[in-house]
């Protein structure tokens, strides 16, 4: 990372900190937790009861700041589901197709 990128990252982190410490987020997050029964909604779809770890922005907070406090844009997820979803979004954005490890060992 160069100085410019570092500075941008610092600014983004500061901004994120301010957002997640805000009263508005606190209220919004609480409403979503109650709505989702404090459970991971992805796991629930698969009939698994898993307590949430994070409140995730379905549409990225950075790309859609106007939806940052919209309850319909928020969902409770466990770490496993959250990682899977964040990775899927990132992969889609970069246009990279994930090759399943070990699927075709003869090619690799
Ligand atoms: Zn889950
Ligand atoms: Zn997330």
From TrEMBL:
GO terms, molecular function: endonuclease activity; hydrolase activity; nucleic acid binding; zinc ion binding
Under Pfam families, the record lists: HNH
Record carries keyword Oxidoreductase: no
InterPro entries reported in the protein's UniProt record: HNH (IPR002711), HNH_nuc (IPR003615)
The record's annotation in CDD domains points to: HNHc
Q: Which GO terms describe its cellular component?
A: cytosol
Q: The HNH nuclease domain covers which part of the protein?
A: 27-83
The record's Gene3D superfamilies line, in alphabetical order, gives: 1.10.30.50
Query: Which keywords does UniProt give here?
Result: Endonuclease, Hydrolase, Nuclease
* Keyword RNA-binding applies: no
Q: Member of which family?
A: Belongs to the HNH nuclease family.
**Protein name per the record:** Putative HNH nuclease YajD
| Source organism of this protein record | Ornithinibacillus sp. 4-3
């Amino acid at each position: 990372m160069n100085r410019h990128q570092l500075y941008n990252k610092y600014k983004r982190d500061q901004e994120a900190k301010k957002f997640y410490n805000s009263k508005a987020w606190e209220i919004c997050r609480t409403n979503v937790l109650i709505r989702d029964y404090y459970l991971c909604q992805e796991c629930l779809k698969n009939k698994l009861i898993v307590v949430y770890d994070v409140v995730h922005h379905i549409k990225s907070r950075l790309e859609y700041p106007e939806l940052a406090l919209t309850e319909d844009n928020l969902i409770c997820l466990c770490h496993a589901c959250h990682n899977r979803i964040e990775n899927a979004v990132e992969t889609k954005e970069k246009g990279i197709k994930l090759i399943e490890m070990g699927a075709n060992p003869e090619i690799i």
